[in-house]
Specification:
The complex is a heterotrimer of chains A (395), B (376) and C (301). With 395 residues, chain A is mainly alpha-helical. Chain A has two domains: 2-64, no CATH class; 78-359, no CATH class. Helices cover 74% and strands 1% of the residues of chain A. In chain A, a hairpin with a 2-residue loop joins strand 1 and strand 2. In chain A, helix 4 packs across helix 13. Residues 370-395 of chain A have low confidence and may be disordered. Chain B has two domains: 23-149 and 284-349, 3-Layer(aba) Sandwich (Rossmann fold), CATH 3.40.50.2300; 152-279, Response regulator (Rossmann fold), CATH 3.40.50.2300. Chain B is built from 13 helices and 16 strands. Chain C has one domain (2-225). The termini of chain C are far apart. In chain C, helix 7 (171-181) crosses helix 9, helix 10 runs parallel beside helix 12 (272-286) and helix 11 (246-267) packs across helix 12 (272-286). Chain C is mostly helical. The chains are: A mainly alpha (395), B alpha/beta (376), C mainly alpha (301). At the A-C interface, helix 1, helix 7, helix 13 and helix 15 of A face helix 2, helix 4, helix 5, helix 10 and helix 12 of C.
Chain lengths: 395, 376, 301
């Protein structure tokens, strides 16, 4: 353990300087030691007890939450509580919830592509951008208002989704991921450089707010209700899709593409619809985003954004709708709550990604009926045992 | 599944209510300060920070600012926009939602302009220490001000300098495609055109890119005598280095206030010698400024930067207006700012209806012997 | 202008080629795209700066320029090799049997982590790489060639020649080739697969370190973000040339650099990156095995 500490201190030396390196090395040793002790002292000892109690408390809250939605009446109460939030919370927090809601929509959309159909899309943010810019541009040129723009944005994004899907039909796994990454970056760079169309890095200003019957929606509270409505709609549609024939085709595609094809499933149609639907939702989310910010610029649509949305899906629970929503909530609210740590945010995210993949690759909430292929990582002895039988190898 | 979702939401609502009380708001007068606090333009952010901190500490040491009778301490809300317009707008929303009485910011024009629409919609006063693009004050918002000059002024001075002082005819123009950079380059181009000079080369470069040799090579073909760059110091450094060291281009290099930072000649070294930059006249000559320079030295242990005093003045103006008018409403503060001639560390300042300073001269400086020297 | 653009592309090409080698070596053995490889390159550049600072403080820079040069390359190489091995051990080895998605996410996570780590530790501003060699330049066939460019090209070519020799002639090289062909069989004939994989990462990272130091010397500026873009471009180069093939990485690196430079010089400077990404997308769609790769893509599934 100490050795590991020294090693990390060594690695950190040229980057963090001698003092910090020692600190880092010490912290690493300490953590590793703690984990080791943890494993043995988890059930005994005061520290273990505290952790166990904390765990129980969380579990109780989880159970409590289940009780709260036990029957129809309670569900109604919960929904009413949810809808009353903007009156209780301050403007700033409501705004955070609005942003969260948009991400929930995006994550649900990406979930269709990655979670249901198993197509790894690293350039999802491109569709988000298409939706946002559609509204921005059509609003600038033709004064198109918000509601038709929702349709326009969704439709155009869907078209782009199909456009992306066609050339990548043959690709699988890593290559698909990289191509989608490339596609996402191309969209961002074109938006950044095609000044005549998009005003380049300076973005498009003064996008109109939505209006309902003459009332202009501009406060976070207004957007809250709009977004909650859209979220519920998204959940509804996505849920139904999942249970439909198309959804089952996606599951088959995800589990084993070759077998699915042999069963007579039209792979082309299945893949393209997955891309199309996922993209459509990103487009809708983009329109809402543009209306909320009244401003769009290419910098909102970087690869890092794609990664965050992907994390919401993967870490929250791939393929599981509540899991994805949890992921979206956590990954939007947590950074806001920990504003002091903004500097370290990507580091924490990156570390979380690695840890989650090692410890719990299926995400927090597992999807119903999802079984991991036998080759998936299983924690603990089984894995170590298999490694030990490797000729000449050791851990 | 629906139930599960609500369960998740309920669970998180629990947690939110646990965390919420941790962020209680004390009664204080909040001002927002936004700029590139981190990132490749953090040099600007640092100046912004120190200038504002000096101003605010001065007020807080005097007991605070009196608003409608009560004296309140001033609290600064920082916003790091990393010169990204999107971040700027997000921060603008945050500031507005947090109830700030005024904003010092942003720094880059491409950020200030979108942010200004948010502030204007909410009626929050915004004073920028450094955004020079004319569009900012042409939008017709009554609560937007700037204490610096405008790029049409800079462009005019630059064109005059090239034609009358340097007497050069072949001018290449480069820009970084941002509101500020391209805006400045285009203004210079316009004024050169008025003097009968058309640039021999005009191209944009991408901010953040490292290798400009391809575009510089294309430019070299046209044999320019002067290269005018509308942009900021990170790219200026790379451009001038690659021009001189890789391609042996001897043309004069010229730019504007976005490059007027120590880092420029520190990092570009020998290649930066002889660069012409337009900026306001030497601040250390103004008596009120001397005080600030002293305070800055004492508190931060180093000299003021090019924009420190601008930031100080902007912050001071907001706070003084609140104190003098006794109101914390944006419209009243704005009206007060426009109502008088301010004696500041930048000289006498008076604003016109648009929010521009009535008089804001630009002069040329040059990098000589490893520092900035004002040319007469 | 043509020759000048050619010259412009040389250094860029060398850098891409060196980084691409790291990608291609790792992919050949693990069938994994090491997303964090670009960050290793960036770390190499930063370690180069630190090394120079230390050497300068110790007075070695004044004394012997050759020793400084050797050390400024050697120390980052050693460190980056260490980083590479650690990276593999922490983020990839536990996931060796996992479905494709997990190591990819883990790789992206490490990439983000390292990027941010350097940003936190070293600041987000550009950092200056002190200039070492004041080699002049000369005009040749209408182009201005600087001594530094020749130095970089020579170093890159030399390194790659050494690498090729290593892979062909040494035992470890043979072991690497064997493991790349068929991991299980290799372990059955007694190859220590873990050791080979660690060595692969070490070599790839060391090469990236060389590239990092070269970039620092050439541009004089580094920041924590250069890894991302260079990583993607180098990956494009590796794919273009044929992933899994050393010669392919070389060819891809120079070819991509030339294509990019000429595009930027003759067509449009601002769409340079779009062009590179477009190349990536097109190659992956129409000829994923690259120029020198074999059409035998039975292992693509």
């Amino acid at each position: 353990m100490l050795l590991a500490g020294f090693w990390f201190a060594f690695l950190a030396l040229p980057i963090s300087g001698p003092w910090n390196a020692v600190l880092i090395g010490g912290a690493c040793s300490f953590m590793l030691l703690a984990i080791k002790l943890f494993q043995t002292a988890m059930t005994t000892g005061p520290a273990g007890e505290m952790v166990a109690r904390l765990w129980c408390a969380l579990g109780r809250m989880w159970g409590q939450a289940a009780w709260l939605v036990g029957d129809r009446k309670k569900i109604l109460v919960m929904i009413l509580l949810l809808l009353s939030l903007p009156w209780v919370l301050d403007r700033y927090t409501t705004d955070v919830l609005v942003v969260t809601g948009i991400y929930v929509m995006l994550a649900l959309g990406l979930n269709v592509v990655v979670g249901f159909a198993g197509l790894l899309d690293l350039g999802y943010v491109a569709f988000y951008a298409v939706g946002a810019y559609t509204y921005a541009l059509l609003n600038s040129w033709m004064d198109l208002s918000f509601w038709p723009a929702l349709l326009a944005g969704g439709a155009l994004s869907m078209a782009f989704g199909v456009l992306l899907g066609i050339p990548v039909l043959r690709l699988r796994g890593d290559y698909l991921a990289i191509v989608t990454l490339g596609f996402g970056e191309i969209i961002r760079l074109v938006l950044n450089n095609w000044d005549n169309l998009t005003n380049g890095p300076n973005g498009i200003l003064s996008i109109d707010r939505p209006t309902i019957g003459g009332m202009r929606l501009y406060q976070p509270m207004h957007f809250f209700y709009l977004v909650v409505f859209l979220c519920f709609m998204t959940m509804f549609v996505v849920g139904r899709l999942n249970r439909s024939r198309l959804g089952r085709a996606w599951s088959a595609l995800r589990e084993d593409e070759t077998a699915a094809e042999c069963m007579g499933i039209n792979i082309t149609y299945t893949k393209l619809t997955a891309f199309a639907f996922g993209a459509a939702w990103a487009g809708i989310g983009g329109v809402v985003f543009a209306a909320k910010q009244t401003f769009v610029s290419p910098e909102s649509f970087t690869f890092f954004e794609s990664v965050i949305i992907l994390c919401m899906v993967v870490l929250g629970g791939m393929g599981s709708i509540p899991g994805v929503i949890l992921g979206a909530l956590v990954l939007t609210v947590l950074p806001e709550a920990l504003r002091e740590l903004t500097l370290y945010r990507p580091m924490l995210l990156g570390g979380a990604m690695v840890l989650m993949m090692i410890l719990r690759p299926q995400g927090f909430l597992q999807m119903h009926g999802q079984r991991l292929p036998a080759s998936a990582v299983l924690p603990g002895d089984v894995r170590r045992g298999r490694e030990k039988t490797h000729l000449g190898g050791d851990t | 599944m629906f139930r599960m979702v609500l369960r998740v939401v309920g669970f998180l609502v629990f947690i939110t209510f646990l965390v919420a009380p941790l962020r209680a708001n004390a009664a204080a007068l909040k001002i927002g300060v936004a700029g590139p606090l981190t990132g490749d333009q953090a040099a600007f952010g640092e100046m912004l920070k120190s200038g504002v901190l000096l101003a605010v500490s001065e007020w807080n040491n005097r007991g605070g600012v009196s608003v409608t009778g009560t004296k309140m301490k001033v609290k600064i809300l920082w916003g790091d926009d990393r010169h990204d317009p999107r971040e700027g707008v997000t921060i603008a929303h945050k500031f507005v939602n947090s109830g700030v009485v005024g904003v010092v910011g942003h720094f880059n024009s491409s950020v200030s302009i979108p942010a200004s629409t948010v502030y204007a919609e909410a009626g929050v006063v915004q004073i920028t220490p450094a955004s020079t693009n004319p569009k900012l004050t042409e939008q017709g918002f009554s609560t937007v001000f700037r204490v610096c000059g405008r790029d049409d002024q800079q462009g005019e001075v630059a064109a005059a300098f090239i034609v009358d002082k340097l007497r050069k005819k072949r001018v290449a123009i480069l820009h970084d495609k941002t509101t500020y950079g391209q805006g400045l380059a285009d203004e210079t181009k316009r004024f050169l055109g008025a003097k009968g000079i058309k640039p021999v080369f005009y191209s944009g470069i991408v901010q953040g890119d490292k290798d400009f040799t391809p575009v510089l090579t294309a430019m070299k073909q046209k044999k320019p005598e002067v290269v005018y760059f509308g942009g900021i110091h990170p790219e200026a450094i790379l451009l001038v280095k690659q021009m001189r060291e890789r391609l042996g281009i001897k043309a004069d290099f010229m730019s504007g206030d976005g490059v007027f930072v120590d880092e420029y000649y520190k990092i570009a070294g020998k290649s930066a010698e002889g660069t012409y930059l337009s900026f306001s006249p030497d601040q250390s000559k103004i008596p009120e400024a001397k005080n600030i320079i002293q305070m800055h030295r004492k508190r931060f242990g180093k000299e003021v930067g090019a924009y420190t005093i601008y930031s100080y003045v902007a912050a001071n103006m907001i706070l003084a207006s609140i104190a003098e008018s006794g109101s914390n409403k944006g419209s009243k503060i704005a009206a007060h700012i426009r109502s008088k001639v301010w004696a500041t560390a930048l000289g006498k300042i008076q604003f016109n209806k648009k929010g521009d300073v009535l008089e804001s001269p630009y002069v040329f400086w040059q990098v000589k012997g490893g520092k900035f020297v004002q040319l007469n | 202008m043509f020759t000048q653009q050619l010259v412009n592309g040389i250094v860029v090409g060398s850098v891409y080629a060196l980084i691409a080698l790291g990608y291609t070596l790792v992919y050949g053995i693990l069938k994994l795209i090491n997303f964090a490889h670009g960050e290793i390159y960036m770390i190499g550049a930063y370690i180069g700066i630190t090394t120079l600072a230390v050497l300068g403080a110790m007075g070695i820079t004044g004394m012997s320029i050759t020793l400084t040069l050797v050390l400024v390359f050697l120390i980052p190489m050693i460190y980056c090799a260490a980083y590479g091995i650690t990276l593999e051990r922490i983020a990839y080895r536990p996931l060796r049997r996992a479905p494709r998605l997990s190591p990819l996410i883990s790789a992206i996570g490490m990439s983000i982590f390292l990027q941010n780590y350097v940003q936190v530790a070293q600041g987000a501003r550009d950092k200056a790489f002190p200039s070492l060699l004041a080699l002049g330049g000369f005009n040749f066939m209408g182009a201005y060639i600087s001594g530094l460019q020749i130095f970089i090209l020579a170093t890159a070519v030399g390194v790659m020649a050494v690498l090729q020799l290593f892979i062909q002639k040494t035992r470890m090289g043979k072991a690497m080739r064997a493991t790349a062909q068929d991991r299980t069989m290799a372990s059955l004939v007694g190859v220590d697969v873990n050791r080979v994989i660690a060595a692969t990462f070490a070599i790839g990272s060391a090469l990236a370190a060389i590239a990092g130091v070269m970039v620092g010397m050439y541009y004089g500026l580094v920041n924590h973000y250069i890894g991302f873009i260079a990583g993607i471009k180098a990956f494009t180069a590796a794919v273009l040339g044929g992933i899994g093939s050393v010669a392919g990485a070389l060819l891809g690196g120079f070819l991509l650099a030339m294509l990019e430079t000429f595009w930027a010089g003759y067509v449009s400077a601002i769409y340079k990156d779009v062009f590179a990404f477009a190349v990536l997308v097109v190659v992956l769609i129409f000829r994923p095995e690259g120029i020198l790769g074999s059409s035998d893509s039975s292992d693509r599934v």
